[in-house]
Amino acid sequence: MRLIALGQWTYFAWHLPTALLCISAGALSTVMARSLWREEFSVAERRLRFSVLGWSAVLSSLLSLAAWPYLSAFASVEVQRDGTWTLHNYLGVPVAVVPAGESRRLEGEDLGGLNLGSGRIRVLRADGSALDSVRISGPRFERARAQLGYPTDTLRPSRGSVLTGAHTYGPSGPVMHAEVASR
Question: Which of 4, 59, 81, 119 could share a disulfide with 110, CB 3.0–4.6 Å?
Answer without folding.
Answer: 119
